Amino acid sequence: MKFTELGLSAEIQRAVAAQGYDTPTPIQAQAIPVVLAGRDLMACAQTGTGKTAGFTLPILQLLSGGRAKPKRPRVLVLTPTRELAQQVEKAVQTYGKALRWLNTACLVGGAPMFAQIKQLQRQCDVVVATPGRLLDHLNRRKIKLSDVEVLILDEADRMLDMGFAEDIDAIVA
Ligand code: AMP
To answer: 60, 86 in Cβ contact below 8 A?
Structure first.
């Protein structure tokens, strides 16, 4: 299978090709059509098998029609660690280069609150966050999640192992 067969727009395909990839990995070939169809998905694959692009590419495709409402995130990605959040945000920016209006925010612990609050004051379409810091912003009413259309729990098993279950429940609520 080729990326051209997955129903991704030409501009997203170009961003993938610019990274040197023309063949989707198995997790991508299986996950991308399901996400594009708007269905819930639980997927499992080892690190290094292209999971990040597996959810990033179809989400960018779903967003590519443009902004619906101003000032509210439409995609929320939760990750267990700051490093993973930063990697995911970078992937969204890399593959989403052609969506010139696309803004992202990375809300992680160990980084200054103030800079993150400033980021949230402009429209952030995709928010990548660790659960604790996101709850902090929610409690301070610095972010609203009422327009989130897609929720990704990246490395969900690790988040549960790290004791984030309650935080995730609160965020989902
Ligand atoms: P991940 O499993 O998301 O951590 O991705 C591992 C690495 O695979 C990253 O460096 C990606 O850039 C790379 N990658 C993602 N998709 C593909 C693909 N279709 N073919 C080859 N490498 C890929």
So the answer is: no
Residue recorded with tokens 């070939």: 29
- Look at the block and give the residue holding tokens 């610019």: 18
At residue 69, does pLDDT exceed 90?
no
Task: Report the separation in Å between the CA atom of 49 and the middle of ligand 1, taken as the mean of its atom positions.
Answer: 6
Contact 108, 133 (CB under 8 A): yes
State the helix-helix crossing angle for 51-63 and 26-36, rounded to 10 degrees. Answer: 30
Backbone angles phi, psi at 85, to 5 degrees: -60, -45
Is the CB of residue 52 below 6 angstroms from any atom belonging to ligand 1?
Answer: yes
Question: What is the rounded CA–CA span in Å between residue 116 and residue 92?
Answer: 18
Tens digit of each residue's pLDDT (9 = 90 or more) over 104-114: 999 999 999 99
Question: pTM to 2 decimals?
Answer: 0.96
